[in-house]
Amino acid sequence: MLDILIIGAGPIGLACGLEAKKAGYSYLIVEKGCLVNSLYKYPLNMTFFSTSDRLEIGGIPFASIQAKPNRPEALEYYRRVADSQGLNINLFEEVTALEPVQDYYQVQTSKAVYQARHVIIAIGFYDAPNLLDIPGEDLPKVRHYYFDPHFYYKQKIVVIGANNSAADVALETFRKGADVTMIIREAELGRIKYWTKPDLENRIAEGSIKAYFQSHLTAIRENEVDIQTPTGQITIPNNYVLAMTGYQPQFGLLQKFGINLSPDFKRHPQYHPETMETNLENVFLAGVICGGMDTHIWFIENSREHAVKIIRHIQEQTRVV
Length: 321
Fold this sequence. Notes:
Blueprint: E1 2-7, H1 11-22, E2 27-30, H2 37-40, H3 71-84, E3 89-90, E4 95-101, E5 104-109, E6 113-121, E7 128-129, E8 142-143, E9 156-160, H4 164-175, E10 179-184, H5 197-206, E11 210-213, E12 216-220, E13 224-229, E14 232-237, E15 240-243, E16 247-248, H6 251-257, E17 283-285, H7 300-303, H8 305-320
Helix pairs in contact: 1-8
């Protein structure tokens, strides 16, 4: 019987593990992928918007060469945190069911069954991309994830999106020899890192990167795509479509567990903001999952405190009992 089972070994799941260990609770972190799985899927050359001190967990210093760390530095940091603190983690083990049994929960995974008095759900949102729902989206040329620009050398690519991910993809692939066209639903670029936005604006202005604003794809075929623009539909040659359209949490998993979601498009899960407890007694949420479809609300730097709130509440419950 565990005191706490934590679902997700991202930065916030690790932070929950650190707080549980500090408080003397028996705990286990279960992760369906690798350690900090979402960060691992980030683009190879990605630089964080936040400074390294804002990405720290458990008060453990994060030293980086530049003020804003990159992906390899973040992976190194979280690996070292897990190792140096001896965190109890099972990787590549997916949670499939959560069932209440008297005063504890039975947690079924792909490898075992666990019993825990408290469950913390700290899953991210990077596994479920927002789809375009247009003909041809299922072709192999369509990618919802981007890793390295070299692959797209001498290729005609379409980048869908107006925010950070789309900006990084457009600039990196352009500088590695791709012919880049951006498709942007809005009339202007969106939320983009301040050191990136002027670069992209200048590339668009000079015509190095083509951009269609207030436009969207209507169909994808093997060697071309259709674009609906304000002046009508056009067809352009194309080798790859990189749809940087964002991602969403695993709502199906939350519903399967019995956690209430708001009925609107936002699909905010129900939880108490002071304790992070959901409508299920002794089941808590932590991290980006708390925002539902508003995935831009919670980040590592402002949700690492969720771990402190949860463990403090469990301690207060224990004292009352």
